[in-house]
Amino acid sequence: MSNESDYGSFGRYVEIPVDLMSPEMKDAYEFTKRLRGLVPGPHKIWLANPKLSKTIVPTGAYYQKHSTLTKAEIEIVTNLITARWMSAYASYEHEKIGELAGHLPSEKVERIIAGLPTSFEEAREDVIYQLASALVTPRIVPLGLYRRAKEAIGDAGITDVAVLIGWFTMVSATLNAFDVPANAIGLDQ
């Protein structure tokens, strides 16, 4: 085993400055920036595979602008799944986002991340928490919970929750593969 460091500018990933990117990578960078306004967290890593990056980035952008879920509901699901996969960077970032942008009480976000039971006064938030918890644990979604979820958020909302879990599983796996720590900043570009 070599004594060279395996760490780059973003965990184990060595970012490439924009002016040194290949044309394909730069195109993926600009595509992400157009859709998201920035190139955050795992998107930095996905640039290493420009075709894949351009394929998956629209899914994340959908949750930023077009989801049937509110920001609070998205952050409930996000914090459940990133904590489930023990993704230090994603959990650190989304704990803050859940509180600041999702306006979730810090105690509730902390309980979600710690795997402790919690509940929400808002009926939609509570059923989304229960549905996502069943899917993340993993457990079978019981018929009663499914019916409550269908009544509260409909098929489109249930689909949003399920795909969001998949999205943040992919995010967490990427960040974990490159051992991105909680306080990673990366290049400012």
What secondary-structure arrangement, pairings included, does this model have?
Elements: H1 23-36, H2 41-46, H3 50-65, H4 71-84, H5 88-100, H6 106-114, H7 123-136, H8 143-177
Helix pairs in contact: 1-3, 4-5, 4-6, 4-7, 4-8, 5-6, 7-8
What about the largest sheet? Answer: none
Order of helices and strands: HHHHHHHH
Give the overall silhouette. Answer: globular
In terms of DSSP E residues, the strand content is: under 5%
- The total of helices stands at 8
The span between the termini is 33 Å
Helix percentage:
55-70%
Q: How would you characterize this protein structure?
A:
The chain has 189 residues and is an all-alpha fold. The chain has a domain at 71-177. It is built from eight helices and no strands. It has helices at residues 23-36, 41-46, 50-65, 71-84, 88-100, 106-114, 123-136, 143-177. Helix 4 (71-84) packs antiparallel against helix 5 (88-100), helix 4 runs parallel beside helix 7 (123-136) and helix 7 crosses helix 8.
Question: Could you list some keywords that capture this structure?
Answer:
189 residues; mainly alpha; 8 helices; globular
